[in-house]
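#help-structures
NK: newbie question, is this the right format to request a structure? protein is Arc-like DNA binding domain-containing protein
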Amino acid sequence: MKKVLPVRTQIRIPPELHTRLVEEASKNDSSLNDAMIFYIEQGLKYQEENSQQEPKRTPKVHSDFIEEKIGISDQAIEKIADKLAERLNQK
C-alpha cells in the first residue's frame, strides 16, 4: 500500500506571529510545524462551529438582524434614507 506523504508548502507570516508560534511549540515540547498545524486546525474547527450558529452576513441577514434587535423595518430604513437624500439635495 502506498504511503500518503504530507503536502509541503511555504507561507509568509509576520515576525511577531512566528515568534509566538516558536514560543508555543517550545512550551509544548513540539515542533514549529506541529504548532502551526495545531493552531490552523483549531481555527478551522472554531470557524466551523461558529458558522453553524451565526449565518453569513448578507444584506438580508443584516436587515433581519436590525429589524429583530432594534425594531427598525426595511420600510423605515428606506424612508430614513429617502429623507436624508431629500435633505442633501436641498442644500
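mod (FA): yep, format's fine, and the C-alpha cells are attached above. Residues 15-53 form one domain.
NK: thank you!
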